[in-house]
TrEMBL record:
It holds the Pfam family DPRP. This is Deoxyribodipyrimidine photo-lyase-related protein. Keywords: Lyase. Residues 182-191 have a biased composition (Pro residues). One of its GO terms (molecular function) is lyase activity. Residues 161-194 are annotated as: Disordered. It comes from the Archaea.
């Protein structure tokens, strides 16, 4: 009897570790030959697996750590050593993984069963029970907000009896502040790589073509062990949590982390369970260390968004991966790889990805996805870019976030696109003041590229978007523009597209 854990299932607290003869970990590196991933992502995944191996062995348990190109090759070796073995695995999140893995095991004369995956709060059956009590075709009932209220009630998190703690379900109104000019957040935690992690980083450098060369990236700093992940959680709670809420949507030049937790990669790898992070957040609130708007905003991300994304993805695949309701087909502009653009906002956000394999939520949604969407990029190509560039990116989480939310490839996750002009970025950041483009102008040389792209995007997609939820105000502005304004907007948008394609924007 073997417990087979994937590299995204490194849950050291799993009681079932002790209930098996051995733990099987397969370090299958062939995937990294096929695409140029960020070197921090590869180092993080492989180092976390090797650290987990050493940690579990130190507890006296047997770990078979198999390095191979593919799962198939490693399973050949496993079943040579343990013919007819029965394997158990926490239910994987990637679409089709269960059947693929089971077929590999069956073909080698073994058996594979799946158990609850502790890196998510709900089993598929539990989510489906909620979903089936809703009309899944009715956007008002099959939405994250309703699910989140249900989760609060089910789990009792941030509840005062039947009422939400503090009296409101949602404190978004208080969470759209921009910090004062002299503000800077405490330095985010940095974990000095030990010998194991250094060895992985050198191997990654030598063996793979990567998203950026490692000397163009910042020094590797991500937590790769459970102890480091717990320490990252404590550092967040002590130093940045209180300001997480108010500055959740803000962007400040030179501040890649703001007051975000930076915990997504640790949670997605299983180093922290979502419920222990939620519990810690709730305790900080109960101890009076963080205000309700910060704790509620944070809890909503994990109890609501993360879980909702995982299950909507599961229920919407395989269609979601190729969804493209706006029929957008452009390649991503080269600036997404080089970071070379005069647009201060895009240069900053791509720079964060190149340096850290990370950008915070609003950069992901309102800069990187927003620009790609109004520019006309293919959602699948944007999804692929996110998948390669981010340390926390796995198919179950990028596909709904990028194709659904960021590109409006499907309306499964939001009733309208997250499209905005430069004025949104100007309101939420200090980027525009140092940008050579003029955010106040829509047309002509030097006008903010976001503006003409935004208006022409709305016009080009009018048939799909005009009738969708909450687009009325935007289309009233579209209707106010006369023919001469549209000519100038079209001309500027065409120039912006050409310059972007040529890497000269
Ligand atoms: P915080 O802002 O501190 O939030 C706390 C936690 O909530 C995160 O650690 C994460 O676990 C969870 N969370 C918040 N929002 C989401 C969400 N929409 N979906 C899933 N979990 C969420 N998240 C990933 O984990 N991996 C991705 O590859 C990823 N790609 C994204 C792409 C786009 C276009 C968008 C709009 C969002 C994406 N997200 C992704 C969601 C979110 O942006 C990140 O989880 C968050 O920015 C990670 O930083 P943090 O840990 O500092 O998060
Ligand atoms: Fe971005 Fe436009 Fe502002 Fe420049 S002016 S930072 S391109 S929104």
């Amino acid at each position: 009897m073997t417990l087979w854990l994937l590299g995204t299932q490194l849950d050291r607290t799993a009681a079932s570790l002790d209930e098996h003869d051995r733990v099987l970990l397969i370090e299958a590196s062939g995937f990294a030959d096929r695409r140029p991933y960020h070197p921090h992502k590869l180092t993080l995944v492989f180092a976390a697996m090797r650290q987990f191996r050493d940690d579990v062995r130190a507890r006296g348990l047997t770990v078979d750590y198999r390095q191979a190109d593919t799962f198939a090759a490693a399973l050949d070796a496993h079943f040579d050593a343990h013919p007819g073995d029965h394997l158990t695995m926490p239910r994987p999140a990637a679409h089709g993984a269960e059947s693929r893995l089971r077929a590999l095991v069956d073909a080698r004369g073994g058996t594979l069963s799946f158990v609850r995956n502790p890196t998510f709060l709900l089993t598929p059956a539990e989510f489906d029970e909620w979903a089936e009590s809703r009309n899944t075709n009715d956007p008002d009932t099959y939405r994250m907000e309703g699910f989140y209220h249900w989760m609060r009630r089910e789990t009792g998190v941030l509840m005062d009896g039947d009422e939400p703690a503090g009296g409101e379900w949602n404190y978004d109104e208080e969470n759209r502040e921009t910090p004062p000019e002299d503000w800077s957040p405490p330095e985010p935690p940095s974990f000095e790589p030990d010998a194991t992690t250094r060895e992985v980083a050198s191997w990654v450098d030598a063996a793979f073509e990567t998203f950026v060369d490692s000397d163009q990236a910042a020094p590797f700093r991500w937590p790769v062990t459970r102890d480091q992940a717990l320490s990252a959680l404590e550092t967040f709670v002590d130093g940045r949590f209180a300001e997480f809420g108010p500055y959740q949507d803000a962007m400040v030049e030179g501040e890649w982390a703001m007051s975000h937790s930076l915990l997504s990669a640790a949670i997605n790898l299983g180093l922290l369970t979502p419920m222990e992070v939620i519990d810690r957040a709730e305790r900080a609130y109960e101890a009076g260390e963080v205000p309700i708007n910060s704790v509620e905003g944070f809890v909503r991300q994990l109890l609501g968004w993360r879980e909702f994304m995982r299950h909507v993805y599961r229920r919407s695949m395989p269609e979601m991966a190729d969804a493209n309701q706006l029929d957008q087909t452009a390649e991503l502009p080269p600036a997404y790889w080089t970071g070379e653009t005069d647009m201060a906002c895009l240069s900053e956000a791509v720079g964060h990805v190149r340096e850290h394999g990370y950008a915070h939520h609003i950069e992901r949604l309102m800069v990187l996805s927003n620009f790609a969407m109004v520019y006309g990029a293919d959602p699948g190509k944007l999804n692929e870019w996110f998948h390669q560039g981010f340390v926390d990116a796995f198919h179950w989480v990028t596909t709904p976030n990028v194709v659904g939310m960021g590109s409006f490839g499907t309306d499964a996750l939001s009733s309208k696109p997250y499209a905005a002009s430069g004025s949104y970025i100007n309101r939420m950041s200090d980027y525009c003041s140092s940008c050579p483009y003029a955010v106040s102008r829509d047309t002509g040389e030097g006008a903010c590229p976001f503006n003409s792209l935004y208006w022409t995007f709305l016009r080009e997609n009018e048939e799909t978007l005009r009738g969708t939820g909450r687009m009325g105000l935007m289309y009233s502005h579209v209707d106010d523009k006369d023919a001469a304004e549209w000519d100038a907007l079209e001309e500027r948008a065409a120039t912006v597209r050409t310059l972007a394609r040529q890497g000269k924007l």
